[in-house]
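Budget justification note: compute hours in this period were largely spent on complex prediction jobs such as the one shown. Inputs:
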Amino acid sequence: MKAEIIAVGSELLLGQISNTNARFISSQLAELGIDVYYHTVVGDNPNRLVDSIKIAENRADLIIFSGGLGPTKDDLTKETISKHLNKNLVLDHHALIYIEDFFKRMNRKMTENNKKQALVLEGCTVLENKHGMAPGMFLSTKTHSYILLPGPPKEMEPMFQFEAKPILSKLLHNESIIKSHVIRFYGIGEAELETEVQDLLHNQTNPTLAPLASDGEVTLRLTAKSDTEEEAWKLIDAMQTEIFNRLGKFVYGYNNDSLASKLRDILVENNLTISAAESMTAGLFQSELAAVSGMGQALVGGMITYTEDIKIKQLGVKETTIKEFSVVSSPCAEEMAVRVKEKFGTNIGVGITGAAGPDGHGGQPAGTVWIGIAIDDSAPVSYKLNLSGMRNTNRLRAVKFTIHYLIRLLHDQGL
Amino acid sequence: MKAEIIAVGSELLLGQISNTNARFISSQLAELGIDVYYHTVVGDNPNRLVDSIKIAENRADLIIFSGGLGPTKDDLTKETISKHLNKNLVLDHHALIYIEDFFKRMNRKMTENNKKQALVLEGCTVLENKHGMAPGMFLSTKTHSYILLPGPPKEMEPMFQFEAKPILSKLLHNESIIKSHVIRFYGIGEAELETEVQDLLHNQTNPTLAPLASDGEVTLRLTAKSDTEEEAWKLIDAMQTEIFNRLGKFVYGYNNDSLASKLRDILVENNLTISAAESMTAGLFQSELAAVSGMGQALVGGMITYTEDIKIKQLGVKETTIKEFSVVSSPCAEEMAVRVKEKFGTNIGVGITGAAGPDGHGGQPAGTVWIGIAIDDSAPVSYKLNLSGMRNTNRLRAVKFTIHYLIRLLHDQGL
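Corresponding output:
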């Protein structure tokens, strides 16, 4: 099965947003073993959309659309496909009720044009939109399959995963089984990782190996094809063992793990609580932890101590520490960690202080970060980062590194 | 002039990366007033690349390629175009010297395949690559113009801006001036906004109007074309006045403004300080503020009070308040705002408490949020949100709404 993804929206052609939907859908199709040969982006123009559909029908079996299902006049994907395939648009009562409910819950007035969102192509399978109003559609003709998805990623992604993907899996029923497994690394660069597994990358057949870097992390996706699920996992296991022998110390997790979810698992399993005092990251560390559900068992709370005055008066860092060593220093980070741990009565205390940029801070150049960690009654430890990114990249890197550093410290204690 | 952007690279079709190059190039072309009708992504396959070029030549005058100029066997963009246009590849000595220097500076041995990067299409204008090795190319035939750019954004972006854009500007010499202006709205949905300006959208000619929604915000881009810059701004001003008459109360800023930068401007101008006590958002509100540089003058710090115990013992919320009204309630949010304001000695205190989801909290269903705000000695106020998204969407929406709510409250006080 060959697929093409057509994203519809003039905002894409104006460069207002990136076509992240094509990336998401492509990675999902790769997992299913469906080849994607082209992505197309076309504006909110029915003639050019029809031209794109005709070209796609010549070179793909499955055409996936994203965008243009909304309530406005610009939204014309289903109207255009309706004409092109000669299928009527019919009202989906279930979707209409959902849309009406949506407005009630939001306490907003429903305008007439919103009803248009409940129209679907005759004979299609309706794909439920649990995070927005416009439903999606799956439609098969004698020659092609069509999937229509909404444009906003928050609506499109769960709809694809939970509504469209199962339908595609069924369609592929008789083909070989594809299994995919992602190994997650931290503390090693992409180039360095590739050098370590160069021979495996070069000779890859089954499973295939695909490295990818983002936000300071590197992942390696292993994809195996086989007649049985068991055999596919066997192929993946053998390759994983080989990779582990070379790079095991950099592996922090798998698949949908994140540094934060990994930390949560360790904390919750060992009944540990955590608090943090954040300066430069101003709450981003704790917010990243809280982004993972179930963190409430471990994360108690903490402080954001943006000014020196607050560090001293509210948190209890000694004035002499700041005067002697500066606010961006190992002693200050460690004292922040110890004080917040005591104040909030947790097992672990974290202190983050630094200069996010663009300017320096506390006598240190932009990008300098000190991370202090105190665990129970052990002496606090600290680590210095020298980051070179822009302000918010530095803040996020500092947070990711802090989580990684803490995981390693807990790991060293046998947790 | 009509343009099409062709990105070449199997990693795009596998969903390993997003086609951010197309977004960047499109936004640059929009500034030049060049219409982009299609984006195409094609893999590292010469036959499919030639097919894409033929399709693009039928519908565009200017074809811009990104990717496939590197040293490896997969990199075949210029080789394919060379065959397709019947133009030889010739060695560019300047580029070769640059590549050799590059290896010397990096203290690495130059492998033979790297020389391939110095080959360019006969008769082209070479575009210098200041951040990598592969040069770009500009080539004109009787019917079309072609621009070849490298794939890595940090090489492509400066090359486009400083090498390709001036060439395109010259080509366009006699065409009109394009000016673009974005109005930013909060507190109104896309559909509702479009209903209010339906007639303007319907009759748009010059300026054109393009609405766009994301993360709870809506923007309206006004683009005017004229012979002089002054005339273009006049056209935009007239339309803006009309939009203001209808929707002024929802406008919070323009162009690159964000809710947080807007709030910073008001706080700094009026010498106001702010602190926050966050439960459900766990630091995200303060982190969003700190993401804007210059917020240090206003943001003092605050607390993350994730548990009831910490709300009571560290922040000083009355136990009876939580018992009587629950932890997700107007009195609790207001008390959090007042306590943090007092504790941190700021003009403004913010309290955010809610159930992010997937589960309910404090007897309230997932998505319920109470935002409390205390300003100086005025009585605290609060607002209830009923959100319907996933956990982290709800957290971000709550933060954005809090900033908006505070801007409105300050605005009502004449600030």
